[in-house]
């Protein structure tokens, strides 16, 4: 059945993609789905609705869109120059407009850019011809299912640890990200390390905490539980190289405590 959407919260890009997620509370599982029949036939995006969005959800939307871009960008170089520039421009714009949106969501120019960034972050454009990761989302979904933590905040919990754990394979793109998006200079490895820190600082500027222990006191055993779930599902190779095992996932989640 053809359907249209009216965007009320910029974040997930549902106005121009076919993805969705659903949580089953009784089993504490959050899973994704999608398909050709879930693309909207039309969408209405009115920046004026941003002024009615609560501060918490504004921060979530900015963080969600930013992490969507990282999932499709923070992998390894494949010579996709224009794709990289598309991704970097979305992140730069989100960084630029974030304080404006948080302080004055009635600014329709910034709100329009916010909406457009969220759409472009996950409408499929920047993933064409490049490797993508999505392991951050796989782990983050488990934290939402187990502890009911906002989706964007689970991404902010996992992403820094994920990049530190996989530093060797992501070092080149981390360096490029630090140089182009954050304007960092210095030795490449130092830039790559600092880029992860700047990402955390950006989340903190939105009042987004980046450690699981800051959301729940009952986090002990979480990593083992997620490891077991991934093993049971047969999710034995995540990430752009399909090489992250459930044991690696356990280590990353533990780093996120």
Kindly, what is the distance between the CA atoms of the first and last residues, rounded to a whole number of angstroms?
Answer: 44 Å
Named CATH architecture: Up-down Bundle
SSE succession? EEEEHHHHHHHHH
Task: Specify the oligomeric state.
Answer: single chain
How would you characterize the largest beta sheet? Answer: 2 strands, parallel
pLDDT below 50 for ≥5 consecutive residues: which ranges?
Answer: none
- Radius of gyration (Å): 18 Å
- Give the CATH topology: Dehydroquinate synthase-like, alpha domain
Class derived from helix and strand content: mainly alpha
For the record, what is the CATH homologous superfamily label? Dehydroquinate synthase-like - alpha domain
Q: How is this structure best described in words?
A:
The protein is mainly α and 257 residues long. The chain has a single domain, classed as Dehydroquinate synthase-like - alpha domain (Dehydroquinate synthase-like, alpha domain), CATH 1.20.1090. Helices cover 54% and strands 7% of the residues. It contains nine helices and four strands. The strands form two sheets. The protein has a two-stranded parallel ribbon. The protein has a two-stranded antiparallel ribbon with strand order 2-3. A hairpin with a 4-residue loop joins strand 2 (19-24) and strand 3.
Main traits of this protein?
257 residues; mainly alpha; Dehydroquinate synthase-like, alpha domain; two-stranded parallel sheet; 4 strands; 54% helix
Q: Briefly, what is this?
A:
By secondary structure, the protein is mainly α. It is 54% helix and 7% strand.
């Amino acid at each position: 059945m053809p359907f249209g959407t009216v965007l009320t919260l910029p974040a997930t890009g549902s106005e121009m993609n076919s993805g969705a997620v659903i949580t089953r509370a009784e089993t504490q599982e959050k899973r994704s789905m999608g398909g050709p029949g879930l693309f909207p036939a039309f969408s209405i995006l009115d920046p004026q609705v941003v002024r009615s969005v609560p501060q918490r959800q504004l921060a979530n939307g900015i963080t969600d869109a930013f992490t969507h871009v990282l999932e499709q960008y923070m992998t390894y170089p494949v010579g996709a120059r224009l794709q990289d520039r598309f991704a970097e421009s979305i992140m730069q714009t989100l960084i630029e407009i974030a304080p404006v949106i948080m302080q004055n969501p009635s600014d329709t120019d910034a709100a329009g850019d916010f909406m457009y960034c969220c759409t472009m972050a996950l409408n499929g454009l920047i993933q064409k011809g490049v490797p993508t990761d999505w392991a951050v989302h796989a782990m983050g979904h488990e934290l939402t299912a187990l502890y009911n933590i906002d989706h964007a905040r689970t991404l902010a919990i996992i992403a820094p640890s994920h990049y530190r754990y996989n530093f060797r394979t992501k070092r080149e793109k981390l360096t490029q990200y630090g140089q182009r998006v954050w304007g960092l200079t210095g030795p490449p490895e130092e830039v790559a390390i600092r880029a992860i820190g700047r990402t955390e600082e950006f989340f903190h500027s939105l009042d987004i905490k980046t450690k699981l222990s800051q959301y729940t006191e009952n986090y002990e055993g979480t990593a083992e539980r997620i490891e077991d779930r991934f093993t049971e599902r047969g999710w034995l190779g995540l990430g752009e190289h399909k090489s992250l095992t459930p044991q690696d996932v356990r280590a990353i989640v533990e780093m996120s405590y």
